[in-house]
């Protein structure tokens, strides 16, 4: 009888231990060393240490689970638990995210942090619940800049006719149409399309030019800083709600710390990236006519993209907060 009882207790112990463990699938579209991956890898390190191995993370990188829209759909369905996703593609799920990507909204990194880590940023993360997402935190892509293989660009007039790759985002497409380009939505990665001149250029933060070696195929870069591009560190809402309070607290704390680590790391490297890109032969326009760029897109806030009352109200609050 005693042996049977001991055996049952052992079986119960291992069954309980097994059921307590958790495996998280986390997807990113970029390759190792990229901004999204730095968040993902840091989160994996932190959560596995803090949970003493009870929570493990498998990072699926390099678009192995699809493009960012497809990853978001899988998170909605529950086949993937988490993702580090550029804010742009969210606007097909919830137009409120267009507020984050409004052109020339943030003056600098400090202002972006102040707003996105504050109540207005929390309003955006909370809104994502209506689409089946749990918005956890904002990490960053960085300020976006234009590159192309055709000509130097200093003013909006110089952009006319350039075929520019954009994300699957109605807002980003409209921005570049308004500036006179021919915007072409295209999933990541895009090196081959640039190399073969399927597209003339693209717009992304500095780290992209370095990690993806765009200096090999893009001669001109213009420091437009036209959009502060954030990542939204996101989980599936149904999965999130099924977690224990303790696990939610562990995950939320780890992703916040990973995001802050990545933002700091990204900014510390930008000066070196600029030096590298110049050394590699890119012709960099450091002082474009930003006033002219701003003027060209100033009416976007009055377009249908921002006609949703929730979106419009938040955009007004954002503009006032960043003046």
From TrEMBL:
Q: Which UniProt keywords apply?
A: Receptor, Signal, Transport
Q: Provide the Gene Ontology terms for cellular component.
A: outer membrane-bounded periplasmic space
Which terms does the UniProt entry file under GO BP?
transmembrane transport
Identify the stretch annotated as signal peptide in this record: 1-20
Q: Name one Pfam family in it.
A: DctP
* Record carries keyword Ligase: no
Q: Which family does it belong to?
A: Belongs to the bacterial solute-binding protein 7 family.
Q: Protein name, please?
A: Tripartite ATP-independent transporter solute receptor, DctP family
Q: Which organism is it from?
A: Desulfocicer vacuolatum DSM 3385
